[in-house]
Amino acid sequence: MVRLIATGGTIAMKIDPVKKAPVPAISGEDLLATVPEIAQVARMEVQNLSNVPSDYMDPDRWVQLHKAVGEALTRPEVAGVIVSHGTDTLEETAWFLDLTVESDKPVVLIGAQRNASEKDFDGPRNLFNAARICVAPGARRMGAMIALNNQINAAREAVKTHTSDVETFKSGDFGLLGMADNDRVVFYRAPLRRQHVALRLADGQHLPRVDIVAMYGGADGALVRAAVAAGAKGLVIQALGWGNMNVPMFEAVKEQIAKGIPVVITTRVWNGRVLPTYGFEGGGKTLQQAGAVFADNLSPQKARILLMLALQTTSKPAELQKTFDR
What we know:
Blueprint (H helix, E strand, L loop, with lengths): L1 E5 L6 E4 L4 E4 L3 H6 L10 E5 L10 H15 L6 E5 L5 H11 L6 E4 L12 H13 L8 E5 L2 E4 L4 E2 L8 E2 L7 E3 L4 E3 L22 E5 L7 H8 L4 E6 L7 H12 L4 E5 L16 H7 L2 E2 L5 H11 L6 H9 L1
Parallel strand pairs: 1-4, 1-5, 5-6, 6-7, 13-14, 14-15, 15-16
Antiparallel strand pairs: 2-3, 7-8, 8-11, 9-10, 11-12
Helix pairs in contact: 2-3, 3-8, 5-6
């Protein structure tokens, strides 16, 4: 059995005749009905958790989804879970589940770039392939995966790279995990840098607030200070190059570190790790000396998720750095 947990997104939208634009419209059962041949792959079960654009996804919804996925995977008859989801934040949800769900069984996230009113709606293909992946022998211990356009990407590396193309998710330097080919599902590599970070929230608790602040030519650090004033318990800086910034941003970052606010350095560059290399004021070496944490090759949005989870147990830079280095 494979459980489909529907959360919304373009894959669940149709053109509204009044608004003349895609809006949430179809359920998980409706989506499943577009792929009758899926019954030859697996017995399907549907849970409609929500029907929202993925732009509405947030930490509380992630926690709710984590619970639903975990409960499904504990059932021995369930081979894997499919999550249907919008593509805008799909990579964030996939990474959150990859970190927090403790199971060898596959979790496959799917979306669509074309809505259900379009003749070439890509949702059915992605759903069918996700079911095939869930029951494929090689899918165990692969963690959360993103499956669109016959391609399988790992949660850590996957990023949406095109606003509308069906081949939007890429994995940068490291490439695909595998392919859902016509004859079989084939895996070519394994995600070796997976880690588990347990959710430790009591009922009613929320994950710590972490904000992302971008470095750009002329940034003055005001947004760094504003984020902390608004209640951020940690910050992710989308820095430049290897992890560099100008002097005003550097001064603002040092102020927050002195207050005990963890600051994680990422980059706006698509590929490569951030490294404490440059020694000019605001360069990576000086940031490291000031107590900043370096996020390896994680994107700002994924570094934010890992920092939120890590802050459940520690805010010490040295311990946080070990988490980001794993």
